[in-house]
Amino acid sequence: MSDTGVLDALLESGVARGELVALALDPGVGLALATATRSWAVASADPCGAVALVERGIGPRWVLWSNDTAETLARAGVRVARAFDLACAHRILEGTWAADPARVWAAANGLDAGTLPSVAPPDLFSSVGDDDGDGDEPVRRDGHLRPEWAAGAWRASPERLRRWSVLAQHAAAEQIAALGAISGRPAALATARAESAVELLCAEMTVDGLPMDRVVAEGIVAGFVGPRPRDEAAAAEERARRDAAVLRHATPGFDVDLRSSTQVRAMLRRLGIDVVDTRAARLRELEDTHPVVRELLAWRRAERVATTYGYAWLDEHLGADERFRGSWSGSDGAAGRMTASGGLHNMPAEFRPAVVAEPGHVFVRADLGQVEPRVLAAVSHDAALARATLQGDLYAAVASELGVDRATAKVAVLGAMYGQTTGHGADALRRMRRAYPVAMDYLDRAEHAAAAGRDLRTYGGRLVRFGPPPPRDDGTPEPRASVAARGRYGRNAVVQGAAAELFKRWAVTLRARGADLGAQIVLCLHDELLVHTPLEQAAPVASLLDSCLQDAAERWAPGTPTRFVADVSVVARWSDAKDASAPPDRSPASGAP
DNA sequence: TGCGGCTATTG
DNA sequence: CACAATAGCCGCAG
């Protein structure tokens, strides 16, 4: 069968837009497709091109084993609209990070993960035990995948690709049934679809990268640590010079490694400065007591850039095409937030001027306003808190409801969601309980469940595992602090996880609707989107961001009275985005009566 | 060599 | 310095 033959075969068998079509693909071998009733295999030199043909001609929902396939497609420049990602759905259902085919298959088929066969033996034909059949049979008698298939033997031939795609189609059907059966979470299937699209987006961001101006970026590094050293010796010399600037203030005769917090603390003590730790916030209070403190703070800044965000960092991640690349993950962490490696999520703000749109383009940047308390209002169905979301500044609305100032209200709201129980906020927290009992009860229940070791599900249906606390060697009960910490984690997970779900709905809605305008999402930062956009489409994309938010919220929480807001701006570089998310906090917590 | 502690950065 | 994350270096255990 030819590449175009695949499309014809699918059309002949009546596959329509949005229907599940499982895909198995290896760039050097070919591709295979499976519907619920039929399957096809093609030896092809350009399997991604064949996928593109089917995408244009039909536009199915592609069933993928994992985002590995999405990344292969993205590298070939093939963008598909819809997916059902088995690894992604597995993580939602099981609340685990590991989602390799063996585990996904086992869970989808109700097999105990504890009975998973171990890795394939070096000699495929020497395997014994309960294994059976020849190497072309992907499933063992006990129902598990054969380890060598799970490890990649499925790539060996078009016929194996075909069988692999049939298995994917079968696993998807089982997962869809399981998602539909999650009690109290009818939308879990919709969550899995949306999060599968997030996997596509992550693959695209991983491949395409973030536009960054090398000259500007290197200039920022130079501002901290000087010009790029010619060699290792020069780098060591530069390092020694930075160290000396601090050490000249220290007591002579003592050897101090500034990278060791213990030694730094000892050095400060010799100078009459006694601190419990040497964190920057603490040192800043003592800046005027001794010149060494200021020097040390400057050293820390330079050292951070030299080791983490320096020339080596740029060399590793910034490509010749002036795109900065890290690896994106769609649902890392227990609550299911997106993560990125390479420093994309924790890049110091000083580097934002280097994030520059390409010629003829701009960034349309948008961030959600006060998303976590608004999400809390939606998921807990607290009518009073939902009323507060109708105001642009939620904290101001809460403040007038509680009869406190805005800063106090903000601390109280955040404290409620993070599980703060002590401190100045105690009175405001009591007021929170009176004003928003439904939301507070929702948080309390999550906290108690987690503290007791019971699993949680987010609003969208993602399992957050807590498990029974492991038995302790000495048989003593678990420390109270540990139980309390798990409770706070649970309290926050239902809010943070739900906020992640809403944010991701927003992102994939924009990915879908902005494609025709050339809008490319290049950064996701928990509540912020950076969209690389052709100059002439800036205005339409800006308004699209807002309408996508409204639609995403309505699909995520149908009929919710909660209002969600986004601050949208059009900028040439990331740093140009003015931070107008909230009015300044007038009265600091320390000044509260 | 692996891992907990400390520190810094982001939301 | 509550909740989450990535990432680097130190110091210690194995």
In a few lines, what is going on in this structure?
This protein has about 600 residues and is an alpha+beta fold. About 45% of the residues lie in helices and about 10% in strands. The strands form five sheets. The protein has a five-stranded mixed sheet with strand order 3-2-1-4-5. A four-stranded antiparallel sheet has the order 13-14-10-15.
Description:
Helices cover 47% and strands 11% of the residues. It has 593 residues and is α+β, with helices and mostly antiparallel strands. It has four domains: 3-181, Nucleotidyltransferase, domain 5 (2-Layer Sandwich); 214-314, Up-down Bundle (Taq DNA Polymerase, Chain T, domain 4); 325-371 and 500-576, Alpha-Beta Plaits (2-Layer Sandwich), CATH 3.30.70.370; 374-498, DNA polymerase, domain 1 (Orthogonal Bundle), CATH 1.10.150.20. The strands form five sheets. A five-stranded mixed beta sheet has the order 3-2-1-4-5. A hairpin with a 3-residue loop joins strand 1 and strand 2. Helix 1 packs parallel to helix 2, helix 4 runs parallel beside helix 7 and helix 8 crosses helix 21. The radius of gyration is 27 Å and the shape is globular. It binds a DNA duplex (11 and 14 nucleotides) through helix 11, helix 13, strand 9, helix 18 and helix 21.
Alpha-carbon distance between the two ends: 79 Å
Q: What form results from the Cα inertia axes? A: globular
Mean pLDDT: 92
Q: What count of helical segments does DSSP give? A: 22
Low-confidence blocks of residues: 120-130, 580-593
State Rg: 27 Å
Total beta strand runs: 15
Main pleated-sheet profile: 5 strands, mixed
Give the amount of beta strand, in percent.
5-15%
Q: So what's the CATH class of the largest domain?
A: Alpha Beta
Structural category is alpha+beta
The CATH architecture of the largest domain would be 2-Layer Sandwich
What CATH calls the topology of the largest domain is: Nucleotidyltransferase, domain 5
